[in-house]
Amino acid sequence: MDAKIFRDTLAQFATGITIVISQNIDRHLHGMTVNSFTSVSLHPPLVLFCADNRSDTFRAIEDSGHFTVSILSEEQEALSQRFALRGPQEALFQSLTLGESVSGIPYLADSLAFLDCTVDRIVPAGDHHLVLGRVDALNRLVPGRPLVYYQSQYQRLDAIPEPQD
After folding, report:
1. Residue 31: Cβ-neighbour burial (10 angstroms; 0-12, 13-18, 19+)
2. What pTM value is reported for the model?
3. CA distance linking residue 62 with residue 144, whole number of Å
4. From CA 32, how far away is CA 45, in angstroms rounded?
5. How many C-beta neighbours within 10 Å does residue 147 have?
6. Where does the Flavin reductase like domain lie (predicted)?
7. Cβ count within 10 A of residue 55
8. Cα–Cα 20 to 30 A to 32, which of 1, 77, 98, 154?
């Protein structure tokens, strides 16, 4: 199967954008942009995302057994791009407002919402791993519209009224 056709076809599916954060055994923070995030189960509360096998953040999740998911607003496109780059992780977290979850893993305090998760299981899947997490804590943080990715571009949901608290 042609990889470009595969990618172009899947680009027809709109996704939200999240930042997944964890820390390695040395307590260094690692984060990555994720659009393969979804809820799995209410009882128990489970979520899932896909992580590239080469990702430092994935290795940190394996080390710590915990991660947070921050759901980005449409105003946070630059953060999505920032965490999509490979390179020194320390620079990614400079000048960000972070909250600390129950597990001790930070989350983006100015995102729409966050989830604090414990790894339930990790399943190898080609050049990625499926990371299934049990949600231990979560909260809505700020009102706004989600950042959406569709047809390989960031999109806005202008037709949807902005949620109010």
Report:
1. buried
2. 0.92
3. 32
4. 22
5. 26
6. 10-156
7. 17
8. 1
Q: What share of the chain in percent tops pLDDT 90?
A: 76
Q: What distance in Å separates the CA atoms of residue 66 and residue 134, rounded to the nearest whole number?
A: 9
Task: Quote the radius of gyration of the chain (alpha carbons, Å).
Answer: 15
> HSE (CB half, 13 Å, CA atoms) of 151?
2
| Residues listed for the chain | 165
At 19-77, the pLDDT tens digits run: 999 998 888 999 999 999 999 999 999 999 999 999 999 999 999 999 999 999 999 99
Cα–Cα dist 48/132, whole Å: 4
| 14/161 Cα distance (integer angstroms) | 18
- Tell me the torsion sign for CA atoms 106, 108, 110, 116: negative
